[in-house]
Design goal:
With 138 residues, this protein is mainly β. Helix content is 0%, strand content 45%.
Length: 138
């Protein structure tokens, strides 16, 4: 079931982003390690909680500049496993707001892991941290 995002107001959000412009040197291998610049879609927060028979997710970004769209995903598997299957719960365009929310009404009992992926206008993606909700029963 796909859901449209709706935005809600945040009274004040003041965050700063740190950027790195030089490559770091790994002490063990003495080889240059690529350090990417901080992107405009840094997530200021990502929260999930049980709401009724579903899960509500809300997140904020430091700046909507360069963000084309968002995708909310979930998995019941280990979120640190690169082979975990993530299912798209909802997707929507970026409307210039600094905060968004979405409700997943199709949840099974267990540990449910969520993440948000921001699709940038240049084609790159930025992922939020993973947030887990434990659903005991409906």
């Amino acid at each position: 079931m796909k859901t449209q995002f709706s935005s809600f107001a945040i009274s004040a959000l003041i965050l700063s982003a740190t950027t790195f412009s030089t490559p770091a040197i790994s002490p063990d291998t003495k080889e240059a390690v690529k350090v990417e610049k901080a992107q405009a879609a840094d997530f200021s927060f990502f929260r999930t909680h049980r709401q009724g028979k579903g899960v509500a997710a809300s997140w904020g970004i430091t700046s909507s500049a360069g963000v084309a769209s968002f995708k909310l995903e979930r998995t019941y598997e280990d979120p640190t496993d690169i082979y975990s299957e993530w299912q798209e719960v909802a997707s929507g365009g970026c409307n210039g707001s600094k905060s968004y929310k979405c409700t997943d009404g199709n949840v099974s009992p267990g540990f449910v892991n969520y993440r948000v992926t921001a699709q940038m206008e240049d084609g790159s993606t930025v992922e939020s941290a993973v947030s887990t909700v434990h659903i005991v029963s409906h």
